[in-house]
Amino acid sequence: MTLHIPFQARYAALPDRFHARLAPTPVAKPGLVKVNHGLARELGLDPAMLETPDGLALLAGNTVPDSATPVAQAYAGHQFGGWNPALGDGRAILLGELTDQTGHLRDVQLKGSGPTPFSRMGDGRAGLGPVLREYILSEAMHALGVPTTRALAAVTTGEIVLRETPLPGAVLTRIAASHLRVGTFQYFAARGDTEALQTLVAFAIARHDPQAEGALGLLTGVIARQARLIARWMSLGFIHGVMNTDNMTISGETIDYGPCAFMEAYDPKTVYSSIDQFGRYAYANQPEIAVWNLAQLATSLLPVIDANRDRAVEVATEAVQGFADAYEAAWLQEFRAKLGLATADDTDGPLITGFLKLMAEAGVDFTLAFRALGEDLSVARELWPNPEVFDAWADQWSTRLAAENATPQSARTALKAANPAFIPRNHRVEEAIQHAMSGDYSVFERLVAVLETPFADQPQNEDLMAPAQPHEAVQATFCGT
Ligand code: AMP
Ligand code: MG
Questions:
Q1: Per-domain residue ranges for the chain?
Q2: What pTM does this model have?
Q3: Considering only 19-23, 102-106, 273-277, 353-357, which range has the smallest mean pLDDT?
Q4: CA contacts within 13 A on the Cβ side of 126
Q5: pLDDT by residue (tens digit) across 92-112?
Q6: CB within 10 Å: which end of the chain, N or C, has fewer?
């Protein structure tokens, strides 16, 4: 192997019970779909190198550089509220960590790279559709300013994976600040392995919270990051769809782009995931679910927060209760920016919820409604089936802006910087996947390129701004498994 990639083995150096050591399973015929040049450079990698046969062999898992120490990570988790003591990477292999151009450690993981001891009944593989979906969605989220795992590359395997129907197989190279999850802590807590918990806390602190003092400091850091993350999701109409505790990171990055989707017509009860029958992970439930998950993290950490159990429960509970205020503040900050407001006023909450209520009543597209505030108001009102109702709200909004010596016109630049024109709309993602499945990647390429600058006006790409027509609408999304 001629590739020289300076992988570190930080996670792999943890004791044996943290992982299983194994290499990816080689695939029949690797085919290059896409290398993310910008991200490769961020990681100190030469994108052209990744596109050579040697690079492709690495991205497909067919060869492992000498510097890598491949492992599958152990974790547990609550899935839809039900406890599963042993999940783990069933179809992913961590190759190691790289220090990026800003000096931060980043995990490099192959997803869809073959079975592991954690695969249970699964085949360890991924289909091309879900891999492209994750590529599009995670990169779009990054461009939208959301902390997220990233997609470094997508390759095809030349093999078929069997799902409801046979699909072309693919491997995604996922980059993360780390792949530590709430479920990683739960795994050791459930085994009563306090020593491992201590090791994990130290590892997570070094990685994500160097200032934190002990397990409580770590918990507080995770809560703060998740409060900001969920508020950001809400401000974009993002519905994760599978907020199981194994899909909630310690880093505060969005992870696991399975059934996620962006809301179109605003309705807080929106659910897309076909497996979320009871709407547990509906748009409006996300903050509450985050608290539920963080309470699981807090519970797992109790033995390492304080040897005195009552004392540990007291301080951990207080920390989890802190989510509500942190989230509320982050939510207000996000939505104030979406209304072009630079200062805070007590009336802002009602002004924001008033706008959302109008949207819900009229079934107006969430993204377009906010984006239009940065256009001429005569344009904005055309989105509304009942423009007088919008006019009445816009009067209140203008009055509030006037208190900042601003107007809807003067706030335009700020409004456009806070409200994206482009989101990965479900029907466009599906369209890109369908074309790719028949060998035409041009639709995928265009969508990825447009979503790199979601806040810019792109008059030539306005077709990608439009919500789905009724016959195009995607009613349900499916897990990537
Ligand atoms: P997810 O729904 O992606 O969060 O995955 C939940 C669990 O199922 C994790 O332990 C995954 O590693 C595992 N898993 C998902 N798909 C597969 C697959 N095709 N083969 C093996 N394990 C899988
Ligand atoms: Mg997962």
A1: 16-176, 182-261+276-331, 339-481
A2: 0.97
A3: 273-277
A4: 31
A5: 999 999 999 999 999 999 999
A6: N
